[in-house]
Amino acid sequence: MSNPYPQPQQYPGGGPQHQGQPQYQGQQPQYQGQPQYQGQQPQQQYQGQMVPAQQGGVAPAQHGQPALMGIQMKRRNPVGVWLGLPLITLGIYNLVWYYSVHAELANFDRRRQISAGMAICSLLFGSITLGIWPLITWISLGGHIREAQRAAGLQPTCSGGMGFLLGIFGFGTLYYQIQLNKVVDRYNGAPTGAQVPLAA
User: Which candidate, 118, 89, 92, places its Cα nearest to that of 105?
Assistant: First the structure.
């Protein structure tokens, strides 16, 4: 008489296999829809790049950088500025120097409103105001240099009044350039145009 109960099928390795169950041939089942970790922790991938701060993103902080930076000015020979170059250029260098120092002061400390164009215009068209405009910009230059000394962390020594008095006797340019060189020398030979830290 035949056996009414069928014998269970055998695994290839010899164990029983029950119908309706998956066959595991030495591997773990892989479930669709879940990541496969091949010995590493999953890492989230961000599509795109960081948005610059100008476009509404957040720029990374630069550690160790000072909050305020300026542009190093040019060191000039005071005697050359006062006497030598004006004689060689028949006075044209005075205009070049006046424009240059105003532009450098504006770049050194951008917190101050200094216009090199207005300064040179005061010399070119000062006769319209009977010399009052050039006088104002000349005295103001002493104030700009004084503030630059303070921004460099120095004790301010420049005076617009002293620049005015010495200018009457022809020594104003010499005085102002000596005062400017104090700011330049404060940064231990940093090249012209280099970024230098400013005092708060």
Answer: 118
Q: Are strands 9-10 and 195-197 parallel, antiparallel or unpaired?
A: unpaired
The average confidence (pLDDT) of the chain is 79
Per-residue H/E/C for 149-162: HHHCCCCCCCCHHH
pTM of the model: 0.67
Residue 57's alpha-carbon distances to 39, 65, 130, in angstroms, are 35, 20, 53
* Gap between the Cα atoms of 146 and 180, Å rounded: 9
Closest CA to 97 of 168, 10, 29, 174: 174
What is the rounded distance in angstroms from the CA atom of residue 132 to the CA atom of residue 138?
A: 10
Residue 22 predicted with pLDDT over 70 = no
Picking from 76, 74, 104, 89, the residue whose alpha carbon sits closest to that of residue 173 is: 76
Cα–Cα distance measured from residue 179 to residue 107, given in angstroms and rounded to the nearest whole number = 17
